[in-house]
Amino acid sequence: MSKISQSFKNHKNFIAFVTANDPDMETTVSNVVALAEGGADVVEIGIPFSDPVADGPVIQAADLRALRDPDLPIESIFAAVKEIRRQTAVPLVFLVYLNVVLQYGYERFTADCEKFGVDGLIIPDLPYEERGELAPFTDKHGLDLIPLITVTSGERIPMIAKKATGFIYLVSSLGVTGTRESFASNLAEVVGQIKAVTDVPVAIGFGVHTADQAQAMADLADGVIIGSACVQIVADNGQNAPAKLQEYAEEIRAAVDGVTVEEA
Amino acid sequence: METEYKTKKQAGRFLEYGGQYVPETLMNELNKMADVYQEAKADPDFQAELADLLANYANRPSLLYYAKNMTEDLGGAQIYFKREDLNHTGAHKINNVIGQALLAKRMGKKRLIAETGAGQHGVATATIAALFGLECEVFMGKEDTDRQRLNVYRMELLGAKVHAVTSGSMVLKDAINAALQDFAARPEDTFYVMGSATGPHPYPEMVRDFQSVISQESKQQIQDQLGRLPDKVIACVGGGSNAIGSFAHYIDHPEVDLIGVEAAGKGVDTDLTAATIEKGRLGVFHGMKSLFLQNDSGQINPVYSISAGLDYPGVGPEHAALAAEHRAQYVGITDDEAVDAFEYIAKQEGIIAAIESCHAVAYVQKLAPTLPKDQVIVCTLSGRGDKDVAAIAKYRGVEIHE
Predict the structure, then answer these.
(1) Strand spans (E) along B254-387
(2) Which residues of chain B have pLDDT under 50?
(3) N or C, which terminus of chain A has less Cβ within 10 Å?
């Protein structure tokens, strides 16, 4: 079982997200550490992309801030991971668009993930049909290639779920990332369809921002992913974000832990 | 010897280019679209309805016109223009839009969305939505809505809603991002009418098929007029829809040279360019693997051309494959050369052609004099240039007060 799947053991999981180099790399390191200390089980680091098609306005804005200099070298993000690893063992996942991985080189990128301590990849523009070009490299370097399943995936669920490792990212609603007040009504049903074919844990993301929502989503699945709300804290607080993020993570942690874990 | 053109073999792939690099949210819808398209393609009723609309609404076939004055002035190869500028709505875009809108109807969709750069594809989509009684929303970068107010009003006149996209660099690529996002949010009732032979499968193949009416006609017309095939087929390339349509029926005739003309902007070796095939690298963007103008880290570069219809950082996957196989050749034409051609064809032939098309015309001006008089060039005029007159006047320092 991977380090990421392990992190779901015996409790509901809370996965937090920040964008690398927003507002600068040093703050990113502190943000990740603060989220881990506040109780995040896994931290996703978004690698900024010029055209983040799956992301809503909050993360798009973060990517723009992070790419003030569009030539930001990917090496500098691995250097930040190295620094994070000195301070915390929290499982780390990159949220990255495929072109960035392709340009760095599939072998080199996955090898560097292994070397610096990244545990998994979420690639929003790499659907099941195309994963074959990257999977040999993630397998070789022991990385989880975390798939997304949506409420419209339907008949596609079994094939996607069977290949999943780490966890399954269940998208709560149609469209892009960003805070929402309501979620698709068939989430529980979709979780059931996934659970019928795999033991890989399921975490729900897209739109979750309040503690109550986090609790409700964690209740439906094995965990909850909070992205835009964390990024908004960074947007509002800049270099002072770490303390605020830690506070927020503690609040979500408490809400998620309020959920009774059923005995397996 | 007949050589089979390799890139036809695998659905959705042209060599290594193409594919479906989109969020999971869109996969079911795209796969459904691909299936319905395959059915429609084989359905005589669908083909009959398409043919009827092309003939009786879009004004096809378009003329294949012998440019006698230019041929004499340039003193080399015989020049023929395929006149897509004479289509309803003034450009080749209508061919594709009719096809995709028929498919949308077949799938029971109520709402069409589209991206647009200069506005030609948005206008064509708004036109067909009006004809079919469908809702229509068009995404257009804020920069472009400011530059092309007339086209914005034209779309509104046709009943469409135009969204000025303020994310990213606020141009065509951002409009595509916004349209993809809207499609992901409302896949059940919405059909995304993609304007070029770009994006995830099945778009590149579908748009190629709908635009291939251009070369289907030109091949027949040149046979009728000269009893032979042309030596060179030339078309401008942004995403590449008019070019792939102009090439399609000649691809299996290796004796016909295919030439795509890209927008070099201020020059292929400057940063202010949109010459993707000459300067781009393999990448994944907007749902496809193809060639893109990008930096070392894989961020998509801002691009530049005087022509809003050609300033796209990528190119359709089939063009990337044709270039890789050396089946087609791609060349760059600068802003200056295109503007000269805009004026030249107007004075020589009495045709005001779109600035996009004038990139192809500029290359004809260079190439024709180097060829013997028994050679034949067919060049596609993808659109008419009324929309560009004000911008060209400004380029020449002429103030026009409306």
Answers:
(1) 257-265, 281-285, 287-292, 328-334, 376-381
(2) 1-9
(3) C
Domain map of chain B by residue range? 13-55+93-207, 59-90+212-395
Among B24, B180, B299, whose Cβ lies nearest the Cβ of A148? B24
Six token digits for residue B22: 């989109």
Q: Is the pLDDT of residue A264 over 50?
A: no
Name the architecture of domain B13-55+93-207: 3-Layer(aba) Sandwich (3.40)
Asked casually if ipTM beats, i.e. exceeds, 0.85, the reply is yes
**Is the preceding omega at residue A23 within 30 degrees of 0, hence cis?**
yes
CB distance A45 to A59 below 8 Å? no
Tokens representing A134 are 């990257």
State the nearest Cα–Cα gap between A263 and chain B, in angstroms: 32
Domain boundaries B59-90+212-395, CATH class: alpha beta
Instruction: Enumerate the residues of chain B whose CB falls inside 8 A of the CB of residue A70.
Output: 295, 297, 299, 301
d(CA B124, CA B2): 38
**Residue whose token pair is 């490792």:** A165
Q: Please list every residue in chain A whose beta carbon sits closer than 8 Å to the beta carbon of residue B298.
A: 49, 74, 97, 99-104
CA–CA gap between residue B15 and residue B9 (Å, rounded): 9
Q: Do A148 and B295 touch (CB under 8 A)?
A: no
Domain that holds residue A64: 3-257
Query: pLDDT tens digits, residue range A169-185?
Result: 999 887 777 767 777 88
Read off the tokens for B155: 């779309």
